[in-house]
């Protein structure tokens, strides 16, 4: 029964994901029908750069060079944040835990902005400069959250620790922005979450990290299931709780940091999507991780599409869209926890 349910959900979400890609690529100032979009995509996959003569040059440029990389990047970022949310919620046994609420995203954004403003290490790290700095900031934020929270990792202490950590890194970001007049507006817009001026290079930076992170998280599904029972029960079943928790925390921080380094701070995806999929499909991490990744990708693709079109030709930060959806959901969860 579980296998049938997983196949049904995964198949449905995958078809919805394909439809979302095709539909969002068609939308914009230049309307291109979905048949042309998929024809261009399959032509590039089959022929490479040597396209058939019946494909319009302008349509090809709009689809392949402008819209499709942005849509794919949004999908990868959404999947990455959803996976990180599943890991944090499973490790901390807390449905309110996610990279944004815990301040991990703010730490990663601070590291990324520092890399952009200073350029330190760019000669050695190349295109990985911003992701490496973002990962360092995420690790620092995670360390602060766990140090401030009490050892029982209660919901209230974790949320308050995340608020304190987010406020601290928010102050650092404000200080950094105030010292850089030339890059102020661009970085400010990017920090609110944006996929503007992103191309295939950014996709190839994030996609391997997301793919490897998904596989590692799924490989540790059994351990995540055991940790839900409690540390003592997991240890009695032969698991090294300390090592597993440390590895998974670093994995979630890495996935979050690389996503933030290319998209800015986008909140509530790691909170809303895992909790919603847990309610719909169950709490088994063997199925929860891949289904949350698909759902996160779909959610972010349509969120970015809404950010592009609502004020067309102007563009909203995608973080505004996710916050409008995620903030009421977060308030509902917090109220439910207080009643419990």
From TrEMBL:
Transmembrane segments: 6-30, 71-88, 100-121, 128-146, 158-179, 200-220, 246-273, 285-310, 316-334
Compartments reported by the entry: Cell membrane
InterPro entries: ABC_BtuC-like (IPR037294), ABC_transptr_permease_BtuC (IPR000522)
Pfam family, one: FecCD
Signal sequence coordinates: none
Keyword tags: Cell membrane, Membrane, Transmembrane, Transmembrane helix, Transport
Principal localisation: membrane
Gene Ontology MF terms in the entry: transmembrane transporter activity
GO biological process, one term: siderophore-iron import into cell
Similarity field: Belongs to the binding-protein-dependent transport system permease family. FecCD subfamily.
Listed name of the protein: Iron complex transport system permease protein
């Amino acid at each position: 029964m579980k296998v049938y349910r997983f196949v049904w959900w995964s198949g449905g979400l995958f078809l919805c994901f394909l439809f979302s890609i095709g539909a969002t690529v068609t939308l914009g100032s230049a309307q291109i029908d979905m048949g042309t979009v998929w024809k261009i995509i399959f032509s590039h996959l089959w022929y490479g750069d040597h396209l058939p003569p019946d494909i319009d040059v302008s349509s090809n440029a709009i689809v392949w060079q402008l819209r499709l990389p942005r849509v794919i990047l949004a999908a990868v970022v959404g999947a990455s944040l959803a996976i990180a949310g599943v890991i944090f919620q499973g490790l901390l046994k807390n449905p309110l835990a996610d990279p944004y609420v815990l301040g991990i995203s703010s730490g990663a954004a601070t590291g990324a902005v520092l890399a952009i403003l200073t350029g330190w290490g760019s000669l050695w790290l190349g295109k990985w400069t911003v992701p490496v700095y973002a990962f360092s900031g995420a690790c620092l934020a995670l360390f602060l959250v766990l140090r401030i929270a009490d050892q029982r990792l209660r919901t209230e202490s974790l949320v308050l620790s995340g608020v304190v950590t987010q406020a601290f890194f928010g102050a650092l970001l404000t200080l950094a922005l105030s010292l850089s007049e030339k890059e102020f507006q661009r970085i400010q817009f990017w920090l609110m979450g944006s996929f503007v001026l992103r191309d295939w290079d950014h996709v190839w930076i994030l996609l391997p990290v997301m793919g490897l992170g998904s596989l590692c998280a799924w490989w540790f599904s059994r351990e995540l299931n055991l940790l839900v029972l409690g540390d003592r029960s997991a240890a009695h079943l032969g698991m090294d709780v300390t090592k597993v928790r440390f590895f998974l925390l670093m994995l979630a921080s890495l996935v979050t940091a690389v996503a933030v380094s290319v998209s800015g701070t986008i909140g509530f995806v790691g909170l809303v999507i895992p909790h919603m999929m847990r309610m719909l499909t169950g709490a088994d991490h063997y199925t929860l991780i891949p289904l949350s990744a698909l759902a996160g990708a779909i959610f972010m693709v349509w969120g970015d599409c809404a950010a592009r079109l609502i004020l067309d030709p102007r563009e909203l930060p995608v973080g505004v869209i996710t916050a409008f959806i995620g903030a009421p959901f977060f308030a509902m969860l917090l109220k439910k926890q207080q009643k419990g």
